[in-house]
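Protein Record: Sequence and Backbone Structure Tokens
======================================================
Tokens: labelled as protein backbone structure tokens, with as many entries as the chain has residues.
Task: work out the structure tokens from the sequence, keeping to the layout shown below.
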Amino acid sequence: MMVDNLAADKYSVPVESIFQIHESPCKIVLAITGGGAEILGELLRHGSGSATVLDAVVPYSMEAMDRFLGRKPEKYCSEKTARLMAMVAYQRALDLSKGEESAAHDVVGIGATCKLKAANERKGRKHVVHVAIQAACKTGVITLELAADRTREKEEKIAAFLIFNVLARHSGVPEVDLPGRIGTGDERKEEITEKYESVSEPVGNLLKQKICSQKGPDKTPDMARIDLNEGKSSAEPDKVRLVFPGSFDPCHRNHVFMAKLASEKHGEPVHFEISLTNVDKPPIDFISLNQRLDSLRKYRDEAFVGGVCLTNAPLFLQKADLFPNSTFIIGADTFNRLFDAKYYGGKVDISAILRHFREKNIRFMVFQRKSVEMSVNPEVLKFCEIVPMDEYEDDGISSTEIRRKQEENKGN
């Protein structure tokens, strides 16, 4: 990312750069909050904006942001939230470009969330810009923490330039120099940090598909396999017998205990399944995916580890289609949801759920958890093995608690 100096009054993206963007095949949906919305004017004011911009949204209030994301973010201005915004924008771009030739390769979502100068702000408040991009096989995010004292107007311009450069890089267009003397000064160094993660086409294809629950009963979910250890041979899907579905954000000691015990009892390696798509959340981006895979790679040399299966099957009814004749490792909270019709939006009755699992020869190995009361249906017990607490050391830890502590440590 270029951070060369420019005169302080040069605060407009060059017109020729705008037209280079419009001449590229890139189609975008923009989601911007907190600052940087001027980029919309830059892209549209010279004409030909429809060649690039499919849609744009500015979810400025917290309520608007919650609705846009389909959830309440942990923080409204953060790298993670920028990535969530980019992912939702990408899904919107796919919908809007549906049916166009090679559209999936050309469309991107861009999310930007900023905390800029405000009236009567408290002393020491950080000013920061996060810009993320989501494409078919790539996730990227850049962050700039502003240290110098500037007007709100100049900070807005800087945010707009950052958004433009993220788009320019993806489009193969030369980036423009940032205004405001970014990167100069001995006392207050303002540096841009970047993260990018790319995936193979089979993994990227999972995001191009609609959520499986919308595909219809005759459609089979898709899957891409990842070998955590290249030295190990990976079983074919129809040979997988022990599946551990989860988000693994991150994988922690309770997950490891469950996987080890299941592998010992069944004499089979465990295959961890992660669905990139979710029922009520944005899909997992590739930076987050790599972090989750890293938490699993720690155990790649262990005998109980098979591999990782990435899917677009958020519901267990769909997972059963992918892994027939398998045993699924689940916790008590998942068990309670699994046999509750509300979990399926009230569209499936319990008898149909049970019948589907019987037809696919699916069994469940259920691990009890502290403070989780299990609701046991006698019909369900016929194909479930309940692991008692005395066989399994549940310390009550959760991935959510681990992430919270990690965020606290970053702030210290």
